[in-house]
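Researcher: Please translate sequence to structure tokens.
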Amino acid sequence: MKVNVSIYGLSTEGYYLASILSSNGANVSIIDELKMMAINVPPSITMSYPNVETLIEEDTLLKLEHQAKTIQNADYIFFAPKIRKIGQEAKDEMTNKFKNAIMNINKNTSIIFNLPLGFGMNQEFIEILERFTGSEINYHYMPLGLYSSLIGSNKVDERLLKLLNNVDNKLQVLDVESAEIVYISKILSHYLSLISSFEAYKNSNQIIKIEEARELYIDDIASSLFDLRMISLSMQSSTPLAYLINGSIKSVENYTKYLIDKIKKIIRRLELRSNNIKIYLIWSMDKYEMRGDRIFMSEILKSKIEENITEVKREYINRLDDKIPLVISCSRYDYNNLKEKGINDAINIKANPFCEMLKD
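Model: Translation complete:
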């Protein structure tokens, strides 16, 4: 008999899980948390639609089922929704969606939590689960992100591990609390170092001509702000670690003002006027990923540039008027992609620590 799996969240990460579980023989449905409808995802679907965006474009052709029925019949529920708030509001949104996901859960179902959490937050969600169901439900913590090779289980489930045996890296199995600490430790080790380097390079009066510095973009340091914010929410604000984390978050947020100041200096140096330029903010991102921090940062960056300099466009097109295009590449991918296409008569600024200007 096939194992029934429901994935709560029509996200990139949720679809990634769906493809693995489906290929391993599970009967998988992925729930659109906004429509509260589930889509059955057999292997033929994941082979036909390489990502969630292509799946959504064709969803009128797919068989739909109400979320409640899918959850009631599930042996496992993976919790991988899109969260589009930040900070405490993000946690509140996460909590509301979690309650919605477990509303029709049965006592024999196991739940796997896939969003990153701060210190002690898993226990909070375990208590919500027990309060809603009135019984102890098997709970697992498997954060998906930069480090997604671990799972926390207070009761090891060999059937679940077998279903997950095609993940990119072999899963490290720990208890829930240990998995929570290990994931936090890995995130902090990576991002505090990354952001510290970014902040140090920003204080240089010249461009440091080493690849490590020049290829560090705002995209790199904003990609897991969600994780840092969750950790920050779980800590007392007066601890040394909290100062480090909150300082790192502030560093990323302050990049907007830093970039605007650099753009203004470039405009003055080139003896241009704001009404003679057209700014393009190029930042490719996955709009279906669970975390929404890059989307949030992009919107803030766009609105602040428009408030302080001039109108901002999202997509670069060849020059069609008498304005000089100023193109801001926010990731390595974006810069290389524009370089391959050729940026004629444009001022290209890398959104790296130096706001490095290149004239093509």
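Researcher: Any highlights?
Model: Residues 114 and 143 are 4 Å apart (CA to CA).
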